[in-house]
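User: Predict SURF1-like protein's structure from this.
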Amino acid sequence: MRRFLFLLIFGLAGMAILLSLGTWQVRRLAWKQAVLAEIEARIGADPVALPADPDPERDRYLPVGVSGTMGATELHVLVSTRDFGAGYRIIAPFTTEAGRRILIDRGFVPTEDKGAARGTGAMEVTGNLHWPDEIDGFTPEPERDENIWFARDVPALAATLDTEPLLLIARSRTDPGVTPLPVTTTGIPNDHLQYAVTWFGLALVWALMTIYFLWRTRARPRSDER
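Assistant:
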């Protein structure tokens, strides 16, 4: 009987822990979905003027419209996309009508179009401010001689192009040959559903194992009596 009670208490405690972890992940899922919905609403809102003093936290994803002049110099950030394959993001300097110089992520071009001529001069650009977090310990240094970058390192890009460390990712087309890659929420991880399923699945397995061991414990004395 003592062994039976021990297994019962141990099994119930384990199930309680696993179920609580699964429930917590469900709550986190609801929270994350609300955050993503808020971000999507912010991304798709009507554009506003470029803030005088942008803040990476306050103004992340802020929709902005600017008028000015697109510079001819550009930097190429190597990327691989699901829809278009390998290619480059085109990063160019943009001088606003107020005289501010910022970075514009114009969008994607295939690898073979890296050196193609692109439209410059006066234009209007609509997009979203962003401070991408793409640098880690495995990111190679840019190959400056070949003009190939491996991440959108905003401070380094700005220093190279002599602009503010401010990146506007275009959602409007700035050249017929450049496909905009606007800001979306697809890159923001949301794995809470998978985690919840995992914890609840482990709780089910734990429950079945507990039932099995309890059955074995009850069945053993009967077999011994025979």
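The first helix runs from residue 2 to 43.
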